Amino acid sequence: MKKLLLTSALLAALPLVVQASDVTFRAGTYEASADGIHGPVVVKTTFSEHKIDSIRIVKQTETEGIGTVAASELPKKILNAQSTKIDGIAGASITSKAIFSAVNKCIEQAGVKPDQLIPVITKKQTKEEKLSADMVVVGGGGSGMAATIEGRMRGLKVVLVEKMPYIGGAAAISGGQVVAQGSKLQKQFGSTKDSPESMMKDFLANGHNLNDKRMLSLYAHNVGQTIDWLHDKVGVKFIPNDLPY
Ligand SMILES: Cc1cc2nc3c(=O)[nH]c(=O)nc-3n(C[C@H](O)[C@H](O)[C@H](O)COP(=O)(O)OP(=O)(O)OC[C@H]3O[C@@H](n4cnc5c(N)ncnc54)[C@H](O)[C@@H]3O)c2cc1C
Question: Whose CA is nearest to atom 36 of ligand 1?
């Protein structure tokens, strides 16, 4: 099989020694909080006279793998920049905003206006890496992850490319319920009268008959075997619930 070559540019941020903003903080440790997506994000920031010395997230209940990425990465970035006027973490904008806001409140408690802090410039160095693969999947949502797993099961070397700092796509934040129509699992759970036609009827009623019928039919005739594949081959555990699915 022809190998696909993939070149990835890895960005390594190398902080340069540059002049920090010419401000004077009231040295000490200050605590502040701001609302994240699931509750308060509490931050403790320590200042010496001319520098932010440390930023610690002391409490947060953000989404695992999304908001928690911002909670672990952003304090380091703010510290390197000595300013909150930097980009947040892609995909975790609400948590990022909460961290910026809480750190800004600490900066104010230390007697400085956050806007006075000009970000320290960091030089970005591009490092090229060449990867070879039989199959390249672009996008690590449910579809891309399934394609990757199936490719690996068939013995292919697969590279999955994801633009976000986490994989999962919409499934990472979805409700977590799935249609099991037509699966062996659905029958095992005691539902034996379902059919693609019945599922399509439900979906069309729910979608005010505006659904793409070709796609809906594809879904209704394949979802059962997809659930069985996830259960039997991938090892996903499903729990029946009270919803009418
Ligand atoms: C809030 C919410 C709740 C939901 N609840 C349910 C539910 O309970 N049950 C259910 O069955 N469905 C639910 N859904 C729908 C379901 O989650 C989606 O239909 C499904 O996850 C879509 O998967 P996908 O792989 O097709 O697309 P996506 O999940 O959108 O994945 C696409 C991926 O590609 C990446 N990408 C895009 N462009 C590039 C690029 N240029 N380079 C690299 N990567 C790229 C994206 O970052 C993303 O990770 C819900 C959706 C949402 C938003």
Answer: 139
127 is a domain residue: no
What's the number of domains the chain is made of?
3
Task: Specify whether the CB–CB gap between 128 and 7 falls below 8 A.
Answer: yes
What does the radius of gyration of the chain's CA atoms come to, in whole angstroms?
25
Does 126 reside within a domain?
A: no
Mutation choice for ligand 1 from 69, 148, 163, CB with most ligand atoms inside 8 A: 163
Looking up tokens 């975790």 gives 92
- Looking at the fold, whether 179 and 243 belong to one and the same domain comes out as yes
Host domain of residue 107: 20-120
**What confidence score (pLDDT) does residue 8 get?**
46
- Count other Cβ atoms within 10 Å, centred on residue 57: 22
Please choose, from the candidates 118, 107, 230, 128, the residue with its C-alpha nearest in 3D space to the C-alpha of residue 179.
230
Of 44, 52, 32, the C-alpha closest to 117 is 52
Query: Are 45 and 27 within one domain?
Result: yes
Tokens, residue 132: 């070879």
Of ligand 1's listed atoms, the one at least distance from the Cα of 164 is 47
Which residue, among 112, 12, 106, has the nearest Cα to 54 in the 3D structure? 106
Tell me, letter by letter, the H, E, C secondary structure of 38-60. Answer: CCEEEEEEEEECCEEEEEEEEEC
Cα–ligand 1 centroid distance for 124 (angstroms): 30
Say how far apart CA 129 and CA 15 lie, in whole Å.
22
135-138 and 158-161 as β-strands: parallel, antiparallel, unpaired?
parallel
Spell out, as residue ranges, where the chain has pLDDT lower than 50: 1, 7-19, 245
Q: Is residue 216 part of a domain?
A: yes
Helix, strand, coil distribution of the chain in percent, nearest 5: 35, 25, 40
- Looking at residue 126, what is its pLDDT? 79
